Each structure stands twice: as C-alpha cells, then as structure tokens.
Amino acid sequence: MDASDPLSDLRERFYIPEDCLYMDGNSLGLFSKDAEAALEHVVEEWREHAILGWTDADPDWHTYGERLGERLASLVGAAPEEVVVANSTTVNIHTLVGTFYDPDRGEKIVVDDLDFPTDHYAIRAQLRQRGRDPDEALRVVESRDGRTIETEDVLAAIDDDVGMVFLPSVLYRSGQLFDIEAITEAAHDADALAGFDLAHSIGTVPHDLSEVGVDFAVWCHYKYLNAGPGAIAGLYVNERHFGVTPALAGWWGNAKETQFDMSLTYDPAHSAAAFQTGTIPILSTAPLDGALDIVEDAGGVAALREKSLALTDFLIELVDERLPECEVGTPRDPASRGGHVAVEHPEAYRISLALKERGVVVDFRQPNVVRIAPIPSYVGFEDVFRTVEHLREVLDAEEYESFERKRGGVT
C-alpha cells in the first residue's frame, strides 16, 4: 500500500523524530522543510529590511494575513476574501461569537456536551458580557453514548428561541464528523446563525462553507496543517456579514487603505480581514506559508482526505482483528469520521505512556481514549501496522502496569 501511495514522497519533506512512530499530529503536526524555509525567509527579511519588511519584503508583511487567507480559502470552500489568518482560535471564538450573538434574534446558543472546553469557556464569557446567565442561555445537546452527538438531537434543539448554533466540525475525542450542511440549514430555517470550530478537520476534511451558507468558522493550523506550536489561527466569515464592526475591534482589522491615517474612528475592512485584532505575528505565521506548499503539492485537501480515510480504515480494521480488548470509539462510516481514531481501553492513560516509552507517540483523552492520528502527509500504512503491533505487545506484556495511574499535566 505504501508503494502505491501517490503521496508517499511527501514524507521526505518532514523532520520525523528518529526511532519514532508519530501518531499525534492531531495535537501537533511535525515540522517540515517547507515550513522551515518559510520561517528562515522572513527571519532573513527581518535582518535585511528591518521595519521596511512591512512594505519591501516578498511577500510584504502588511498583507500577510490576507494573502494566506486566499491560500486557505480552497481548503474550506470559501471565497478568498472570506478567509484570513489572525489571532488564536479562542480569541477568534470570542470575537465572532461576541460580534454575532444577538439576543433579539434568539437568546439561546446551541452547543454540545462533548465540545473542546475552550469553546464553552469563550462562549460563556461572551454571554456574561451580555448580562446573560450561561447556564440559562446555553442549550447543550447531550451525547447518548459519551462518544458521539446525534444529528437529529442537534436539529431538535434548534427552535425559535435559538439565535446561534456553534459546534465543532469534528469531535476532538471520538473523531465524529458533523453534518455541517444539515445543521446550517436547520439554523437558518430558525433564523439563527451557524458557526463551527474546524480545528480537527481543517487540512484533512474538505469543506464547502460558502456553498452551504455557514455564517462563520474558526480553526487552528498546528494540527493537520503542521504550522508549528502556537501557530496563528484562521477564521472564515460569510460575505453577507462584511462591514459589521467586530466585538474585538483592533487596528489590524482596519481597512488597509486607511489604516495609517490613524483615525480614532474604526474603518473595518470589507472582508474577513476586519476580524484581525493586533499586529500579525510574522514569525508565528510564516511556517504556515511553507506548510501550505505541501497541501498544494499533494493535490489539495481532497487528495489528503482520500489517503486519510484509507489510513483510518486500515487502522480500524487492525484494531478489530488484533485488539479484541479495545473498542473503536470513532464512527466507522467514512462520511461521519474525521482524521483520527479513538481506541478505547480502561487503561488508556497508562497504555499511552507505555507506547511513548516504545517511541510510539499518541495521546490520551478522558476517560478511556488513546487517540491515534495517522496524518496523511507523513504517515504510511506500515506505520499504522507497526503502531497496532506495539499496542498488541503492550497489552500482552501488561507493560502499562509499570506506570502510575495519576495523570501528569500534558497528555
């Protein structure tokens, strides 16, 4: 399978730790030579041009966020002006929810009880800013099985009291992929807005945000897009919302033509670029520029998705065959699955430590999940096979027994 993989050569463009099976790219993707070259390029420009880099660098730094937004647009199915890189994911949730939440449209915001915590933290904070009790204003769709959220339960939660739906595209634990189109349609039928957190799908799942009519979305770039730890985040705003003043207005979101007029009256860019806040951090942004070269050379996100599904199909098949003690907590239907597989076992935490001791880098998520993410740009089918073999040996020898049950800080 590796020999016939058209994307296998991409692996050579990454720095893969020695004697390591790296299966944690849905937490932090690996460093690529392309990202390194882009970073070195802006460092050299800083050295050579100093402040003139904002205008004389190639490309200029002043419009770096907008230009990268244009490159990202095809990954999320948007017009170039609907996407920009800016801020962090959590800051983007704050500014977008804060901007678009209107109690007069509907007081309730629909979320789910398996969300990544930062989404709830930000939304609850924004509700408090509006004088709303988050416990009253949040309508939380509960999971039936602790793994997934039923689409019909989300649709049933959307009524005339709802002003906004904000959900992940992919659940961070189980890897369930949501039906964005159905949820957006239901939200709009109720005159509500639909927003999504694409952190666990950007770069591995194609999206059609504009065609579907999604109102806004946020994501990070340090997982499947391999842009580095703490890399700048991204956001999408549908063009019908252009011109609105962001809740967290800042000078970098001012129209570029008037930005240096230094007017004390905000003149928002007539694009998603209005949601930039402070000055773009060039050194934290440049690696994304290089990382996107790999996506484009792969043939786009559709090609990466095809291989990703083949890898996760293979992984699920191996778990079924080789690991009867474990459960697959990820939907088996490819249309309902993101880019990682949740392997469940009561000793998942200690198993993850035993695997790392062997050089198999995975991560643990509460309560019983070993997350395994075969990133299609640098993981092969043999890597998946060897990972399962290591897991089989850990279970056979009960190697996890040598590790304490008490968890550390980072898992």
From TrEMBL:
InterPro entries: Kynureninase, PyrdxlP-dep_Trfase, PyrdxlP-dep_Trfase_major, PyrdxlP-dep_Trfase_small. GO terms for biological process: anthranilate metabolic process; L-kynurenine catabolic process; L-tryptophan catabolic process to kynurenine; NAD+ biosynthetic process. The keyword Signal does not apply. Keywords: Hydrolase, Pyridine nucleotide biosynthesis, Pyridoxal phosphate. Pfam families: KYNU_C. Pathway: Cofactor biosynthesis; NAD(+) biosynthesis; quinolinate from L-kynurenine: step 2/3; Amino-acid degradation; L-kynurenine degradation; L-alanine and anthranilate from L-kynurenine: step 1/1. Its cofactor is pyridoxal 5'-phosphate. GO terms for cellular component: cytoplasm. Its EC number is 3.7.1.3. The keyword Hydrolase applies. It catalyses: 3-hydroxy-L-kynurenine + H2O = 3-hydroxyanthranilate + L-alanine + H(+); L-kynurenine + H2O = anthranilate + L-alanine + H(+). GO terms for molecular function: kynureninase activity; pyridoxal phosphate binding. NCBIfam families: kynureninase. Belongs to the kynureninase family. Homodimer. Catalyzes the cleavage of L-kynurenine (L-Kyn) and L-3-hydroxykynurenine (L-3OHKyn) into anthranilic acid (AA) and 3-hydroxyanthranilic acid (3-OHAA), respectively. This is Kynureninase. It comes from Haloferax mucosum ATCC BAA-1512.
